[in-house]
Amino acid sequence: MTSTRDTSLQSDIGKMKLEPDGSFNRLPSSFRNWIQKDGQFTAERDRYHLYVSLACPWATRTLITRKLKGLEDIIPVTVVSPHMGEFGWPFASVDPFPGANPDPLYNAQHIRDLYLKVNPHYDAKFTVPVLWDKKLHTIVNNESSEIIRIFNTAFNDLIPPDKASIDIYPEQHRKEIDAINEWVYDTVNNGVYKAGFAGAQEPYEKAVYAIFESLDRLEKMLTGKDYLVGDTLTEADIRLFVTIVRFDPVYVGHFKCNLRTIRNGYPALHTWLRKLYWNNDAFRSSTDFEHIKVHYYWSQTKVNPTRIVAVGPTPDIEPL
């Protein structure tokens, strides 16, 4: 089912285009449907399939939430190889990397094949995560911030009460969560990419200083606390975790975010990170440092043309 159309500008990160001033601008996701009662997409057991990369922080958000909500038997998952090359994210059938899977639904070779199955003229990026509908053979949603909210509530009638009661976006905290998400996304989650993909000194420095201003702010917020909002785990923690757990292993060196490390520069943030990782299997089981480091150092050839994968830091994450 592989297309012969040249889609390299959509799939090959080595051909990524920057703004005229050398800055990186992330484009919005394309599929933004929701699973809801009486809608086109309704909550059903084994109707949907989740495609992810263990390397990708955006995709890992959905894995964490899927695990927290106990959706493993309701929404199967397929993991792609971290070797993102000319055709984008490959399945294990063409790149049998440890921990990667073949596509069980269509024997697709790359994630792009799924997008082109939905729309042969699709002209945006071939990203993960992908929440796929097996009944209608289409993409429901490819925006991670929306998928985690879908997982938070849409399947509550199909899971045990203890899992249904877990709410990562509680009504009483939504205003605060939304406010934190907004600046954390801009300056931290996407900020590391703005620094790492910058093609000129000025946009790089602007992004880096913004990252560390926000890390300083987060350090103060987390001093003496286990969670960002109230005294409960929320999506604000999930969205921040996926960036912070990658910070020392890849963003410090590969993306030149090297004013400070998390482990040596931010004691409260470092404790928060390790508690989530070591005390909650949803976070630990969704984090694969080999996939993470291989993807960033191997795939992003504009940043690292030698494809040499850094061996440090040791350990990838420190014990509690």
From TrEMBL:
PROSITE patterns xrefs: GST_CTER
Active site per UniProt: C56 (nucleophile), Y193 (proton donor/acceptor)
Marked site (Lowers pKa of active site Cys) residue numbers: Y251, Y296
GO annotations of cellular component type: cytoplasm
Domain GST C-terminal span(s) in chain numbering: 170-303
Alphabetized Pfam families for the sequence: GST_C_2, GST_N_2
InterPro entries hit by this protein: Glutathione-S-Trfase_C-like, Glutathione-S-Trfase_C_sf, Glutathione_S-Trfase, Glutathione_S-Trfase_N, GST_Omega-like_C, GST_Omega/GSH, Thioredoxin-like_sf
An example molecular function term from Gene Ontology annotations: glutathione transferase activity
Positions with a binding annotation for glutathione: W89, K125, F126, T127, V128, E143, S144
Name the UniProt record assigns to this protein: Glutathione S-transferase
Species name: Boletus edulis BED1
Lineage: Eukaryota, Fungi, Dikarya, Basidiomycota, Agaricomycotina
